[in-house]
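Checked the freezer inventory, then went back to the computational side. Two predictions to log before the end of the day. The first one is the construct we discussed on Monday; recording sequence and tokens without edits.
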Amino acid sequence: MTDGPDALDFVLRRDVYSQAPLPDLVILDLNLPNMSGFEVLAEIRRCGFSELPIVVYSASENPRDRETALELGANSYLVKGGDLSKFVESARALVPRGPVFRSA
């Protein structure tokens, strides 16, 4: 995705992404062009995708950013540059084996 609105269009399957499959996991940066990761996260949750796992993967170590992301519905918040195995472990814990989400 190129920016926040593009990422949102993909997840919500709008416009050029109308036939895209729903992802099993969203990895979301907070620092996106044209729309913040917080805005993308809030809109995904507002549109009813409460079961879609979302991991915020950000360079920000600010505790307030972590709190805000979790309050908006992120399942996990990981700081970039940390242990890659922790990231993989977190992603695996959020995405069960086999298909979970189906197209409407």
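The second is the one RB wanted added to the comparison set:
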Amino acid sequence: MEKLALQKVNSVRELCQNRKTPWIAAADTIILLDGQIYGKPCDRGNARLMLCDLQGRSHEVITAIALYNSKADKTDCRSVVSNVTFAPLSDGEIEWYLDSGEWQGAAGAYRIQGLASCFISKISGSYSSIVGLPLREFYVMLRDNCYF
């Protein structure tokens, strides 16, 4: 996971070579269920399959964050693992959520901070990491890299 966040940081570094960019941060999130990775769905049908797999079950949400400090020419990478449990969902609930379009561009075909919050029966770990940016870890990275 950290490799993906690091690739994003390095892509921005290449784009900003001639600019003073003191910090570059990037994050990436995946869903892991039974050893299978769920990224962003390619279409509505794929999103439906993901939601059908996740409903009524617990899964891991892994978010990696990379922070580049240009002054030190150093990149710090960290990952956060949280657990999310979906309530059982009816076909109608899944179709309602798919109709919202909120699943588009979201790992596992859902956004916990949006309508899908209605489907979540339990979380364990970092809510902000599930959203996509682990705020506590980001703060610690800034602190550890002498920003404060």
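For RB: The domain at 2-128 is CATH 3.90.950.10 (Maf protein). Helices lie at 2-15, 44-54, 91-100, 127-131, 135-144. Let me know if you want it refolded.
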